[in-house]
Design goal:
Number of strands of chain A: 9
Shape of chain B: globular
Number of domains of chain B: 2
Strand content of chain B: under 5%
Number of strands of chain B: 1
Radius of gyration of chain A: 20 Å
Helix content of chain B: over 70%
Number of helices of chain B: 14
Distance between the termini of chain B: 29 Å
Number of helices of chain A: 8
Distance between the termini of chain A: 53 Å
Largest sheet of chain A: 3 strands, mixed
Order of helices and strands of chain A: HHEHEEHEEHEEHHEHE
Oligomer: heterodimer
Number of domains of chain A: 1
Chain lengths: ~260, ~400
């Protein structure tokens, strides 16, 4: 309805509708609310914390830089930290049904035999196919570039899993217990790396970055030319996985 | 042909209706079990995320659109031969769409949130489009049936038939587009799939119509006119040949692309899907029906045409199995040029075996379509009534 509309009955209906919709939104989608109030920062980097009630800033583009040369063979610290932080603990008889928000990939160049390893997770694309194909909008990209699944409106159709070029999403195949209250998960929903959005909003680093003993992972604002990550990306050659798809991932790799 | 005893006919109806209802109820029970336990009780996993219920659902939804081709032949292309068969096509369309949607919705991880899907529509998603495509299709078919079966509404059947024709082309384009927009998978991501799904729908829908009609004629102890048999079997033959042509073009084009050669080798030469493709889809589902439909010894015989139709249906299901499961079993090429290993089974060919609950849910979808059709033909007059004069006139034309 336009602001020029002087019909008082219509104006009342619009106001009432907005109120009802707002109320419904608060009740129906507490997940979004949860993120909005998660600003109780006691973080070392509290300056980067999002203020309670404020929206994510489109001026920011959160991202990761991963140096595959530093990723130590056999080390699983980032995986353990991620799954512990996010309460991904279930172990099903068929391991192919277990969720893996982050995984270690071993690569051997077919021509040279050179071997590398790296952690792989949601690449937080600027043009995410998972968001395009989601019928309900549960797959969404936050203004600051973090790609998330709203567990309250995910219907579990798995179309996003078909569309993701990175095999970055998992489907929760079983009932869950003892979840981390800051990271809601749910049976029958799809999930993936959230870039530890609940930590980022407090001004903390993602759990995987913090846990890496080799310092192979850096986190920061790709849009801020003065940030450490942006400076590193500007000074060393980096790779986007499946750059040919032009999805502009927020995760960059060095050394592959 | 001998007229069946009306009492036997009555018993047969109740018996088949009971079987249909039982199969449908078992499917719903299986879905509730999956809902309660989680998809851990299925053969699906994080790589093969769509299994047997989706295959059967897509088969039914695509066939629902295609079966209405019978109606379009009458109302859009003016073929009088098909006019009396169009109401049955409408009933089958509604029945199969309902069965297909039941199977696909009950296979959702959160089937209880179906109202969320109806109220939160993302229009960049093909699944989101379906929230508009299917309800409008239902409405159009309902109105189309009304215009055909209510004498006073007959003048409107041509225009409604035309609208339905356009809508089902859009709808089946949408079904094909589910796979067209998958950017990173070798099996999909080609625009050819949209027209291919339309031609597949024509073949599968007609095959189902032929079998349903044959069952109705048998139950009534009447004989299908030879001209109708001849025309419909020729139509079926051309649709099966066109589907085979599209399949060949798609695979040949893919073989040329170096990035897809490994996938084509996997499907066509070296996997559990190879024999399904060559024996199931190509030989039993396409070449054998074509031989039956055109060989002089079998072409004019109802029983052989029915067998050919059955084979087309079987071939269609196998085709979707190879396409959907085979396409997912082949790993994503995330790091081209590298040998890849991970705890998440990257670069590994996956294997899928449908579990019992999935099979029952898939069968339940078919059971729902069957039961709706059975009750429909029982309570309303969907039996084709051919006008001998019109048949004779149609026979003199070479269409």
């Amino acid at each position: 309805m336009s602001s020029q509309d002087k019909n008082p009955r219509r104006a009342f209906l619009a106001a009432a509708g907005t109120g009802v919709a707002g109320l419904g939104f608060t009740v129906i989608a507490p997940g979004l609310h949860l993120m909005a109030v998660a600003g109780n920062a006691d973080a070392a980097n509290a300056a980067d914390a999002r203020k309670p009630g404020s929206a994510a800033s489109p001026a920011v583009r959160w991202g990761l830089l991963i140096d595959a040369n530093k990723c130590a063979p056999g080390c699983r610290k980032c995986i353990d930290a991620c799954h512990s932080e996010n309460g991904v603990t279930e172990k099903l008889p068929d391991p192919r049904q277990n969720s893996q928000w982050i995984r270690k990939i071993e690569l051997v160049d077919r021509r040279t035999g050179h071997s590398t390893q790296l952690p792989m997770m949601c690449q937080h694309c600027a043009k995410p196919p998972c968001v395009d194909v989601c019928p309900t909008g549960a797959s969404m990209k936050r203004a600051d570039g973090i790609v998330l699944v709203d567990r309250h409106i995910c219907i579990g159709c798995r179309y996003c899993m078909m569309a993701c070029p990175y095999k970055a999403r998992s489907f929760v195949h079983t009932p869950l217990h003892e979840q981390n209250p800051e990271v809601p998960r749910g049976q029958g929903c799809v999930e993936g790396c959230t870039l530890c959005v609940h930590r980022v909003d407090k001004g903390l680093q993602p759990a995987c970055v913090e846990s890496c003993p080799e310092g192979a992972m850096s986190f920061g604002d790709l849009n801020d030319a003065s940030s450490a990550i942006a400076k590193q990306i500007a000074s060393v050659p980096t790779t986007q996985v499946r750059a040919d798809l032009r999805l502009d991932p927020g995760v960059r790799y060095q050394g592959i | 042909m001998m007229k069946p005893d009306p009492r036997n006919k009555e018993s047969l109806f109740y018996l088949t209706a009971a079987i249909g209802a039982l199969v449908s109820a078992t499917g719903v029970a299986a879905a509730l079990y999956m809902e309660h336990q989680g998809h851990v009780v299925t053969g699906m996993n994080n790589q093969i995320v769509w299994g047997l219920p989706l295959i059967v659902a897509i088969f039914l939804i695509v066939s629902a659109s295609g079966v209405l081709n019978i109606g379009s032949m009458a109302s859009v292309f003016g073929r009088v031969l098909y006019k009396s068969r169009a109401p049955l096509a409408g009933l089958l369309a509604v029945a199969m769409l309902t069965g297909g949607l039941a199977a696909i919705m009950l296979d959702l991880g959160r089937a209880d949130r179906i109202m969320v899907a109806a109220t939160h529509v993302n229009l960049t998603s093909v699944f989101g489009w379906n929230m508009i495509l299917y309800p409008v299709f239902y409405s159009l078919v309902a109105v189309y049936l009304w215009t055909m079966m209510e004498r006073r509404m007959n003048p409107w059947s041509k225009v409604v038939g035309f609208a339905t024709f356009i809508w089902r082309v859009v709808m089946t384009t949408g079904t094909g587009c589910i796979f067209v927009f998958l950017v990173a998978r070798q099996a999909y991501g080609t625009a050819l799939l949209a027209p291919m799904f339309i031609i597949m729908s024509f073949a599968w829908g007609l095959a189902i119509h032929i079998l349903t009609q044959a069952a109705m004629y048998a139950a009534n102890g009447t004989q299908l006119p030879a001209l109708v048999l001849q025309r419909t079997k020729n139509l079926l033959g051309s649709f099966v040949a066109a589907t085979l042509y599209f399949t060949a073009v798609m695979h040949l084009a893919n073989i040329y692309f170096a990035k897809n050669t490994a996938f084509e080798y996997f499907i066509l030469m070296n996997s559990e899907f190879t024999s399904l493709f060559w024996v199931g889809q190509v030989l039993l589902g396409s070449l054998l029906p074509l031989a039956l439909l055109y060989h002089p010894a079998t072409a004019a015989r109802g029983a052989w045409v029915n067998l050919a139709s059955l084979l087309v249906i079987l071939g269609g299901l196998i085709q979707l199995y190879v396409f959907i499961i085979g396409g997912q079993a082949f790993p994503l090429d995330i790091f081209p040029g590298y040998e890849v290993k991970s705890s998440f089974f990257d670069a590994e060919v996956d294997h899928y075996a449908a579990s019992l609950p999935e099979m029952l849910l898939a069968l339940g979808g078919i059971g729902i379509a069957f039961t709706i059709t059975l009750i429909g033909v029982r309570v309303l007059d969907f039996m084709p009534h051919d006008d001998p004069a019109q048949l004779e006139a149609a026979g003199s034309k070479t269409d």
